[in-house]
From TrEMBL:
EC number: 6.3.4.21
Keywords: Glycosyltransferase, Ligase, Phosphoprotein, Pyridine nucleotide biosynthesis, Transferase
Name the record gives this protein: Nicotinate phosphoribosyltransferase
Record-stated family: Belongs to the NAPRTase family.
Nicotinate/nicotinamide phosphoribosyltransferase domain segment(s): 167-287
Origin: domain of life: Bacteria
Catalytic activity from the UniProt record: 5-phospho-alpha-D-ribose 1-diphosphate + nicotinate + ATP + H2O = nicotinate beta-D-ribonucleotide + ADP + phosphate + diphosphate
Processing and modification events after translation: Transiently phosphorylated on a His residue during the reaction cycle. Phosphorylation strongly increases the affinity for substrates and increases the rate of nicotinate D-ribonucleotide production. Dephosphorylation regenerates the low-affinity form of the enzyme, leading to product release.
Alphabetical list of PANTHER family matching this protein: NICOTINATE PHOSPHORIBOSYLTRANSFERASE
Organism for this UniProt entry: Limnospira platensis NIES-46
All copies of domain Nicotinate phosphoribosyltransferase C-terminal, residue ranges: 392-447
Pfam families on file: NAPRTase (PF04095), NAPRTase_C (PF17956), NAPRTase_N (PF17767)
Free-text function comment from the UniProt entry: Catalyzes the first step in the biosynthesis of NAD from nicotinic acid, the ATP-dependent synthesis of beta-nicotinate D-ribonucleotide from nicotinate and 5-phospho-D-ribose 1-phosphate.
């Protein structure tokens, strides 16, 4: 294969998602088949052991893509031949190949709705399926849910800092970790309350209009040819009237002063300007004094902490374009662990990586629209639950079929806003947040102790 062919081969289409997995998912599946246990009923739960530093909550996101993947999971004949050609599987039972060729996902999925706040050790999703199916889907589920949950959480924190009226635009495509990630980032940001994205493909796929401004290159190009920065503003305004003008390519205040003079003379109608550098507090205040009716938009490595600082300093900024600090950062380290096999609860007992056994439900106690605390229980102990509590995990796929159609992003964004607003203020802090009470039920605690004792090495 030549270099050009190798590059083309790295493009990805949805029918290749079955192979978008870690090798050990396939080797473990081969072992299950060889041992005759591939169809034993199994339950895996996806959760994070701890939150990223200075995060008081997570916003669950990525379920829609996870369910789409499960609905379409299938190994075609070409993929099976590719696997055979590797030589890695030469000793496996021949039934392994028929399991892959004939199998589709036929299990149940329980999940918290997208846009819901969750905490450490709380299942975001549970798969209940034949063992080989539940095992082989791990990699893709973690990929989409971990990343989109990270983006949604950061976006929700930014919306919380900015308030409901500020415009928040996702500008992260050039900083996202891949073209696919840029689409997921845009979706997750919109689902967590952003107003728009500059990613044209993402916007069109999601039924939105892409949003954006202009870049320094246009100002420099036209200003160099015409020897006049204002010519760039006039040209852009001519073709895109009302679009925000980027005014910090050279001297921000001089540009604002000239625009103010032209506005006063009736030569141009400016609706918005963007600041991308400098002292945002002082510059925004001076620009506001010159252009009192114009929206001021800020960008340039902004995050929720910076938004809170700007608001605290009373910077008159109406909106933010956020890229790098939204689409990158400390990952959500979600894991996917077996909790039950053939009706037998199991747990991992590795040092610092202990998990809770059994299939679980999260019950959230609400009072006056505010969260009072969560209780992590086994699914069969609802009789001991406060009747005011809400079970967060819902059945979203049964026997491999969707229970309901995917929710619109607007509904997910509304849930995100309500979920964040319901959290205690100390949980929403950006520095040293205090997490709400997460109670482990007595029955779950006892089961954990009993399972641990039963698996001790004699």
């Amino acid at each position: 294969m030549d270099f050009a062919s190798e590059d083309r081969a790295m493009s990805l289409s949805p029918d290749e998602y079955s192979l978008l997995t870690d090798l050990y998912q396939l080797t473990m599946t081969a072992c299950y088949v060889g041992e005759g246990i591939e169809d034993k009923p199994a339950s895996f739960e996806l959760f994070t052991r701890k939150l990223p530093d200075n995060f008081g909550y997570l916003i669950a996101m990525g379920l829609t893509q996870a369910l789409d993947y499960l609905e379409n999971l299938k190994f075609n004949s070409s993929q099976i031949e590719q696997l055979k050609s590797l030589g890695i599987f030469r000793n496996v039972n021949h039934r392994f190949w028929s399991v892959l060729a004939e199998g589709t996902f036929s299990g149940n999925v329980w999940a918290v709705p997208e846009g819901t706040a969750v905490f450490a050790n709380e299942p975001i999703l549970r798969i209940e399926a034949p063992l080989w199916q539940a095992q082989i889907v791990e990699t893709y589920l973690l990929n989409t849910i971990n990343y989109q949950t990270l983006i949604a959480t950061k976006a929700a924190r930014m919306r919380d800092a900015a308030g409901p009226d500020a415009k928040l635009l996702e500008f992260g495509t050039r900083r996202a970790f891949s073209p696919q990630a840029s689409l997921w980032a845009a979706r997750a940001a919109l689902g967590a309350g952003f107003d728009g994205t500059s990613n044209v493909l993402a916007a069109l796929k999601l039924g939105r209009k892409p949003r954006g401004t202009m870049a320094h290159a246009l100002v420099m190009a036209i200003a160099a040819i015409d020897e006049n920065e204002d010519a760039a503003f006039e040209a852009f305004h001519h073709y895109f009237p009302g679009a925000p003008l980027l005014i910090d390519t050279y001297d921000t205040l001089k540009a604002a002063q000239r625009l103010a003079e032209q506005v006063k003379a009736g030569k141009i109608k400016v609706q918005g300007v963007r600041l991308d550098s400098g002292d945002m507090v002082e510059l925004s205040k001076q620009v506001r004094s010159l252009l009192p009716e114009v929206e001021i938009f800020a960008s340039g490595d902004i995050d929720e902490v910076e938004i809170a600082r700007l608001k605290g300093a009373e910077a008159p900024i109406n909106g933010y374009g956020i890229g790098t600090k939204l689409v990158s950062g400390t990952p959500v380290n979600g894991v996917y662990k077996l909790v039950e096999i053939d009706g037998i609860p199991v747990m991992k007992e590795s040092s610092s990586k202990v998990t809770y056994p059994g299939r679980k439900q999260i019950y959230r106690l609400m009072e006056g629209g505010k969260m009072k605390g969560d209780r992590l229980c086994l699914i069969d102990e609802s009789e001991s639950i406060n009747p005011s509590s809400i079970g967060l995990l819902q059945l979203v796929m049964k026997d491999g079929k969707l229970v309901n159609q995917p929710e619109p992003l607007a509904a997910i964004a509304e849930r995100t806003a309500a979920s964040v607003a319901s959290l205690p203020p100390e949980c929403r802090r950006f520095d040293y947040p205090i997490l709400p009470t997460i109670e482990i039920s007595e029955k779950l605690a006892n089961l954990s102790q009993n399972v641990s004792k039963s698996t001790e090495v004699k």
